[in-house]
Amino acid sequence: MTAPSTPIIYVRLHSRIKMKLGVTLKIRHVAHVLTDPPGLEDKVLEAELMQTEKKDGSLLLVDVLQIIGRIQKIVPGATIETLGSSHTLVELIPHDRPPSKSLFVLVWLLLFFGSALTIMNFHADVNMKEVHIRIVEMLTGYRDENPYLFQTAYSIGIGFGMAVFFNHLFKKKWNDEPTPLEVEMYLYQQNVDQYAVNEEYERIKKEHAHSGQK
């Protein structure tokens, strides 16, 4: 079977990537590429798009039209088929920084005591102690003003229930399903990315309008 006379290039952009500031951005960083004939893949993937600079800020938008224009210069006359997203959001990282242990401890303490106070305030609002006293009285037949055994079991149950609900115990997961927190973080990241993309498109539109007026 002979190779087609017109090369066909399939491009699928990543939705979001991270790169170090100052690195030369290439097509292989932002997209998956398949070519027919296959020999063109390396040539397309190694094509340079731009040099990332400090003035680009922390987020850089790469549009599929930029990719198409670059490929057409490399492989003139090629048929380009795009799949999936029409843009890639590039997060530029200034330099590698080791995780701050003091910041980790501070955030951990803040979350721990914040969660503890939230639970205690909720229990105070609904008078949970009286509820426990009534439950113990119903089960045993006598009233205990300090049902410590029941409260201890209840406290352990809260911790176990949260571990099951969030599908996590330290680094171990009960199954491969995403936790509710992971789903919420994923949706939040999608909204942030969409907002950043819209803002970047608006900025580009204003720059083109301003240059057109000149």
TrEMBL record:
The residue ranges of the Stage V sporulation protein AA domain are: 8-93
| Parts of the chain that traverse the membrane | 103-124, 148-170
Q: Which Pfam families match?
A: SporV_AA
Q: Does the keyword Lipid metabolism apply?
A: no
Q: Which InterPro entries match?
A: SporV_AA, SporV_AA_N_sf
Enumerate the UniProt keywords alphabetically. Answer: Membrane, Transmembrane, Transmembrane helix
Concerning Gene3D superfamilies, the annotation shows: eubacterium ventriosum atcc domain (2.60.480.10)
This chain's protein is named: Stage V sporulation protein AA
